[in-house]
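Researcher: I'm comparing several assemblies side by side, and this is the next one on my list. It has 785 residues spread over three chains. Same procedure as the others: predict the full complex and return the structure.
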Amino acid sequence: MAIPSTMRWRYFKEGLFFALVRLSALVITVSLGGLLLYIFLNGFRTVNWAFLTLPPTDSMTKGGIMPAILGTFYLTLGAIAVALPLGIMSAIYLTEYAKQGPIVRIIRIGVNCLAGVPSIVFGLFGLGLFVVFLQFGSCILSGALTLGILILPTIIGASEEALKGVPQTFREASLALGVSKWQTIYRIVLPNALPGILTGSILGIGRAAGETAPIMFTAAAFYTAKLPSSILDEVMALPFHIYVLATAGTHIEETRPIQYGTVLVLVGLVLGVDLIAIFIRSFIRKRKRW
Amino acid sequence: MDEIKRTSSHYERELQDIKQNILYAGVLTEMAIQNVVVALLERKSELARKVIDGDKEIDKLDTEIEEQCIRLLALRQPIARDLRFITTAIKINGHLERIGDMAVNIAEKVLQLNEVPQLKPYIDLPRMGEIAREMIRGSLDAFVREECELANHIRRMDSTIDTLNEQIFRELLTFMLEDTRTVHRALLIMQVSKNLERIADHAKGIADMVVYMVTGINVRHQWPGDTSDNICDEKRDDS
Amino acid sequence: MVTVEDTRVIYVKNVNFYYGGFRALTDITMDFEQNRVTALIGPSGCGKSTLLRLLNRMNDLIDGTRVEGEVIFEGNNIYDAKVDPVDIRRRIGMVFQKPNPFPKSIYNNITYGPRLAGLNNRIDLEALVERSLRQAVLWDEVKDILNQSAMMLSGGQQQRLCIARALAMKPDVLLMDEPTSALDPISTAKIEELIQDLKKLYTIIIVTHNMQQAARISDMTGFFYIGKLIEFNATEKIFTKPDHKQTEDYITGRFG
């Protein structure tokens, strides 16, 4: 049967559109896969047990990256310790307590703006406030606080979504039993929102672990032989280590394998953290019944 | 009651169908009474037989109306106004069917009377027939138009017919006492009169139900005279 | 003056209610008597649910609402400044339109309220769970699975669990907001049966869109229209010969 020309034109347009969509998906997948593959191929020879467990030696041209891994670990943990309570509490205020109105809207806009601020600005802010003004110096504390503020919008956003995701009927049911508002939030809303909050927060962790700019003035050391003994010590950190090796040293070419190895560790770390988040989320979705 | 458009027009139509059928049954019974009275006055046995035959139609309608009402009760679960309408319709249907049967009773007596010479000129009997028909027509009008005043008026007419019946009874009694050969004919006429009086009772029963349907007040076992005249005035405080 | 025993558990006097500038209830005066089931009927948006939620101060949760007039519960105006709404809600239980058990075990659903109200003795709690579930005619169905999630139950069972949960607080009044609208006919029949039993112990006020349901289970019926109480009468009266034409038009489906 002959297909009318208008139909054919429609089929053509449809085909074209689908082709474009497929192409975009392909470009993204290929570039991401290529990037990961490139990093892996260049880095995997460097990464071994010693690399992960030994400090750098010979002006960082040899040895491992253990202090940087540890530093990133401390910084991220600190950032979470700062941002999680603050973020959850802000989200509770915004969704449960605050009267929905202009003030809340302004706060929300503020939070969103915070999310859009370039990370170097956070770094300078941390330098100004924590390092200089409060005289913490360049240390884990300053860096963790700065990273904490950086990931605050992510955590507030995730927490707000998670809190809003708890059905209103749960709140009503609890309140109607003569349970106070705070107890309702504490006993019913938070437990049901927690998985969602955690998922969002883990994504925040990934971001905190990978950032260079916020820590380079506030926490990261070019090189420290000793491991930190308190939160007021400087630390090495993975992203900053990569930055240093790739731009600031005198042995840039010689340290290429170490650079790639560090990149691989960092990317693996961030991806691993994201994977955990994805797993938790799918697990919750399966369990959810309301 | 002014009609407000009902959400379910099917339901409304079913109610209207019942109304139509009851009206039709009313017309048939009215005609039966008229015919049977004419058959008596003009000694037309043919007409009396027609009335006896015609009752089949009334019986058929009775069954049909009852089925309609039962179906509506089962499927629509009527309440309030509709519930009162349906219960009223069921009862009216019963009354009309009985009226039809009584017309047949009269027709049978008429057939016997027409076989023998007329005892006396009939004066009160046609009046009774007239009033009975008027009561049926009036009570059904009141039913269709949901008019309490009219229904109440019909209820009061019943006493007139009772008086006429007693009058005929006494008159025939004197006939029988004077001449025992008249007893058979007099008894037949008495039964005609009695049946007409019963027909009027049923018409009053219809009117009683209409009063209930409109006002929600049961007046079936009250003398029309006892019922306060303002029974229909119990207006609700509508806004 | 003769003192008549006051059988009103809760009553509202000249109540107006506003959502912001919108007046949702106009001059409502109503008595709710002990051990009676009162049904509130009327078209959507007529204010019946608003009135229900007014009786246990659930409307407080909505921003910008305002109450005028009095709601008297045991001699006190529950909108008095010194009255704690939390306390009121313990005494006046509520069951909602959609079954809304917590994603907890059946046992913990029941004990949630009492525990937070200070009941901690394990034996008392167990007794309370059994008593509440028995009252809600759910005990036989769930006594062996008390530790399973309430989410496993069927809709009708969930709703009875919600009733049991409300009863566990030992309230004086039980408010029900279209409790069977999300249930199948058999579950609905069970809940209706239950309501009839429960009125021996509680005062029940129920909002329903189902005329037949109001007719079946309630002693008194209030008809609301555009925020006003048009008619408040014995249910039998409402469903055979209501005093107001508006009521009759509504219940016989002659609206709009």
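Model: For your comparison table: Chain A has eleven helices and two strands.
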